[in-house]
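To: structure desk
From: M.T.
Subject: fold request, one chain
Message: Could you run this one when you get a chance? Sequence is below, nothing fancy, just the single chain.
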Amino acid sequence: MLKKITRFFKNWLQQWKDYFQMRTNDRLTNKLFKAQIKDIKERTELKKEILEYIQSEFKVNPRSKHIPMNIRRQIVEGVYNRFRSRMEPLKVNVNYSLQFAQ
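Reply: Done. C-alpha cells follow.
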C-alpha cells in the first residue's frame, strides 16, 4: 500500500515537471521563431535595397547574363562599400554572378 502511494506521488510529480518543462520549451521556441522571422524580413529588405541600388546606380538589370566582368566587379565592390556593415550580421553575400550567396 505504501509503495502504491509513493509511486503515485512520484508519477504525479514527474508529470508536473514534464508539463512545466514543455511550457518553457514552447516559450523558447516561440521566441526563436520570432527572431528568425525578424531576421528573414531584414534579409529580404536588404536584398531588395541592394537590387534597387544596382538598378539605379549602375543602370543594369542584375538578372541579365550579358554584363561584362569588369562592370560586375565594380557593382560588387560598390555593394560591399555601401552595405557591408548591414550585410555581415545578416550573413548576406553577393558573388560576381550578382546572385545572393549563402
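Reply (cont.): The longest helix spans residues 2-58. Let me know if you need anything else for the meeting.
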